[in-house]
Automatic annotation (TrEMBL):
Pfam family, one: DUF4693
Top-level taxon: Eukaryota
Source species: Indicator maculatus
Family annotation (PANTHER family): TUBULIN EPSILON AND DELTA COMPLEX PROTEIN 2
Descriptive protein name: TEDC2 protein
Gene name of the encoded protein: Tedc2
């Protein structure tokens, strides 16, 4: 993108900073989620989160099944590593930046 004016470059810099801040917030939330999953695993190592899969040492209260509100459910999507998830977020950020670049060129 060729910015011939200083205000245009400044606006692009502000946009980039906002995108970086958003990406940083997403990574921070991801770290918090990973910590929550690790904490849950430490509390209930024999439970995968699937319905009825808790071990005897980590049985839910009577009348409840494993996998309800007290136990983290399995996610709808799973990733082979946290690096794969980071790569996905990086690619989504690149796509968003390219869409923004296209919109700026149209203007």
């Amino acid at each position: 993108l060729d910015h011939t004016t200083l205000p245009g470059e400044y606006e692009s810099l502000l946009t980039l900073e906002a995108l970086l801040a958003t990406a940083s917030q997403c990574l921070h939330k991801l770290q918090l989620l990973q910590a929550a999953v690790e904490a849950q695993t430490k509390l209930c190592p024999g439970c995968s989160g699937a319905m009825g899969s808790c071990s005897a040492a980590c049985a839910p209260p009577k009348g409840q099944m494993c996998g309800t509100a007290d136990v983290l459910a399995l996610p709808l999507l799973s990733y082979s590593s946290s690096q794969e998830l980071r790569d996905l977020f990086a690619l989504k950020l690149q796509v968003a930046m390219l869409h923004q670049e296209i919109a700026l060129q149209k203007v």
